[in-house]
Design brief:
Length: 176
């Protein structure tokens, strides 16, 4: 893991790709603020716990209900992609924005992120396939070989992996 600015950590390959993307965006006159990159199991557990508490402070619900609601925005420890070091949350104003994709920075990302190996991990229109609500701030580095194809055919990661498996059923599964 190497630092990528603002205390945000990413895997080496994701950080290098992020820097290239960041510089290209700056050349076009835009900037985004990275909010969160690699998170350890303990950090994720703390974040999840805080979110559950937040829900319980706001609504009168059981612990199970609070967990269900919390998991729409924060994954439980062990099930967050942030623990792999290839995912990053970004923003144009320092907050997680549900309308990020309609900001200038979001439009730039939609047009260009794939060129640097990044994909929008949880598109709003594919929540039935990804199992997660839309997260317009959450990008994942998968490498340009994969991101180019996924962009061309508008596939989310689950669809792409299913396609790869169908094409090559004997292939050994590798962490993307
Ligand atoms: Zn995220």
């Amino acid at each position: 893991m190497i630092p990528s600015g603002n205390d945000i950590r990413l895997s080496l390959s994701a950080a290098a790709a992020y820097k290239l993307m960041h510089d290209a965006m700056a050349n076009d006159g835009y900037a985004v603020i990275p909010l969160s990159g690699y998170r350890s199991y303990n950090e994720q557990m703390a974040m999840y716990g805080e979110q559950v508490e937040l829900v319980r402070a706001e609504e009168e619900v059981t612990l199970e209900e609070a967990k269900f609601i919390a998991e729409k925005t924060v994954a439980e420890a062990g099930s967050s992609e942030h623990q792999y070091g290839n995912s990053i949350d970004i923003s144009s104003n320092g907050e997680r924005q549900t309308d990020f994709l309609s900001t200038e920075q979001g439009r730039w990302m939609t047009a260009n992120a794939w060129k640097y190996g990044f994909i929008l991990r949880y598109p709003a229109g594919k929540s039935d396939i990804t199992g997660r609500e839309g997260e317009p701030w959450h990008y994942r580095y998968v490498g340009t070989v994969h991101s180019e194809y996924m962009n061309k055919y508008k596939l989310c990661l689950e669809e792409y992996v299913a396609l790869c498996k169908a094409e090559c059923p004997d292939a050994v599964e590798e962490e993307l």
